[in-house]
Description:
By secondary structure, the protein is an all-alpha fold. It has helices spanning 10-23, 27-38, 42-48, 51-54, 70-75, 80-84.
Amino acid sequence: MHRTQISLEERQYNNLRHYAQNKKLSISAVIRDLLDKHVPDLQCKDMKASPLHQIKGIVAGKGEFRGKEHNKALYTHESHWNEKQ
C-alpha cells in the first residue's frame, strides 16, 4: 500500500470526515472506495488481454466441475477430470 498526502478545502475535509464517521469507515477507506468506483483500473484492462482470460467460458457442459469447484478440479490429485482419463 502506498502512502500519499493531499490538500483539501475545509468544506471537502468536513464533508469527507462526516461521511466516513456515518459509514463507520476511515477517511482513507472512503477515498480508496471512491477511487475504485470512479477511476478506471488499468490492471483489469491488461488482464482482459491475457490469453487465459480470452479462453474463459469456451467450454460448456453439465458435468460436476464447471467453475464452481475449479480449484478442486485443477489442484487435487483426485479430480473429476483425472477419473475420466
